[in-house]
Amino acid sequence: MILSNVEIVKCLKNGDFFIEDLEQITDPEKAPFNTSAIDLRLGNEIIIPKAEEMPVLIDLSSGKSITKLLSASSEKITISRSQPLILKKNQFILASTRERVSFPINTGKGKKCFSARVEGKSSIARCGIIIHLTAPTIHSNFYGTITLELINLSNNHFALFPDMYICQLIIEEVKGCPLIAPNQFIGQTSPIGVIEK
Amino acid sequence: MVKGYKNKGNVYIPVEIAEGLFSNEYAVTIELADGTYISLYANKNLVNDFDGQYFLKVALVKDTEKRVLLPSEAFETSTRWATVSNLKFA
Hints:
By secondary structure, chain A is mainly beta. Chain A has a single domain (5-52, 73-174), classed as Deoxyuridine triphosphatase (dUTPase) (Deoxyuridine 5'-Triphosphate Nucleotidohydrolase, Chain A), CATH 2.70.40. Chain A has helices at 5-14, 66-72, 122-125; strands at residues 18-19, 33-34, 37-49, 74-78, 85-87, 92-103, 113-119, 129-130, 137-138, 142-152, 158-160, 165-174.
């Protein structure tokens, strides 16, 4: 069941999950809330894959570290209000949300677990911009910023500014606990779901 | 029993790290129980340094088999489940 804006605020207050910078926002009838979603903002780091530095073939079963390969063949830039990234036609980049989110596995009796889906926003979609590629699910136990895979499918360039509302988060309750937790952990909240400040 | 085990409910697995794509993440390499290696990107807050060895915070799923739930999918296996040979309790 998708959570309404009102339920999202209740859950945030209850500590069922966490979305950074929303702790003090108690009015679900104002931005960044929609009726059944929360809008998230674009972070200021952009990762630009360098096609010329990537191997012709990416083989996930090669036994080589894919993460090191991707890191070594990508450029990281920081955008600002005065220096946005101009996303060119057909360009693919990685970005992330400004907000960290946390959906802990709550194993206590009566506790609920939640997961979420990151989706595009209609205003940006109509400009021809895809904000994620086939992997929208934020699973229970996720912690961190949400990585976005942006592609410009339009015939125009598109300016990306930090803190612009770039995507929306749809939150759903998970029926049952996703883990059969070892006995020692019953009643505990996985620390992976705890934001460490 | 290591202090903090029952209270915190987390475990750490030894990893090797390198810089990630984003500044808030590491590229993490993990050795599985069968001797193969997997890698993923993990938030830096999930990685701790104990005496010069880096450890990734994970959820313990089955302690008898040392099966853990990783914070994100590994590239090489496309799954978050992993069986490791070494654990460290927080």
